[in-house]
């Protein structure tokens, strides 16, 4: 039987990379995207191939809709020429960046960037990819713990992630007729390059975040990817329109 195919945005590193690898372990072929780090994305492709699945990396800038039509054309071409398929079975909207900017110093430019990357981009990318998703597909949108609890400096970022939680519910409602499930995953603080790698590299911050976590440490990328893969698989076939927080119990 042909493998199912997942498209994961921002999978050259961090949580997207781990999600792509865990999906491959569950038997998915992967189209992954990167923005600038092509070599890192090519390494992820190789790792997936070592796991026995097919993979292909495409460039994507989620911050502007201008390139989306071209991107969708490329996805169709890759599906046809590399995967011998017309459609996708899962979409993981993961690409994103972190910023820490107080409410008082957040400029219109910063708010626009957060809106475009974390909300408008995933919104219209999903709209454009919808015809390419098989009925019964799964969509996972990436939220954040910061949509439930608040920390100084994350008003623009956290509000966009709250918008993603809301969007997931609306999408789940409207896509139900096609049996397409939509959930959002809300990671807590994870050691990646996110926000300049602060969670991983600033020891005092890392210790503080760990002290607020019931399980006593911050998260690692492999705490997340397996949950994304679960949400894309039939194992979660009755989970729909939910926000799944994956934080080890942060600020309970
Ligand atoms: N790490 C955390 O603590 C944490 C917590 C909650 C939620 N999240 C969310 O999880 C997602 C992934 O974060 P991460 O920690 O894995 O970050 P990361 O390690 O910095 O990786 C970010 C990924 O997104 C891509 N990317 C960045 N800007 C992009 C753009 N404008 N267009 C397209 N792709 C872009 C990067 O591509 P290149 O490699 O090519 O630059 C990279 O693949 C984000 O949505 C983030 O908000 C993270």
From TrEMBL:
InterPro entries per record: NAD(P)-bd_dom_sf, SDR_fam
Keywords linked to the UniProt accession: Oxidoreductase
Transmembrane segments: none
Domain of life of the organism encoding this protein: Bacteria
Family listed: Belongs to the short-chain dehydrogenases/reductases (SDR) family.
Protein name: SDR family oxidoreductase
